[in-house]
Amino acid sequence: MTAKNKRRGNVLEHEVVAAAKEAGLDAVRAWGSDGRALGEHPEVDVMIGTWKVQCKRRKRLPQWLIPSEHVDIQVVRQDRGKPYVVMPLEVFLEWEKETLSYDPNDC
Length: 107
Description:
Layout: H1 3-22, E1 27-29, E2 46-48, E3 51-53, E4 74-76, E5 84-86, H2 89-101
Antiparallel strand pairs: 1-2, 2-3, 4-5
């Protein structure tokens, strides 16, 4: 990986941690983008609470992969594969924050 691409990836990892902390969530970036620094798999770049996050930055994403402004999440799947959820980071962080503050005794 070239130094420029590594730097761009590090910037994204720092942005994700900062956004999570701003949302009131615990988040930490693995030193050197290596999850082993956190006791996790090497592919883990960031931990948001108990979520293991790998950050991938590309110059351009396929347009079909980006959810439109009219939906909250998008589900994608390859033939005979597992479905995956794509959502804006801020939607995920808000959902996680609400999930953590959920108290079943309030119902």
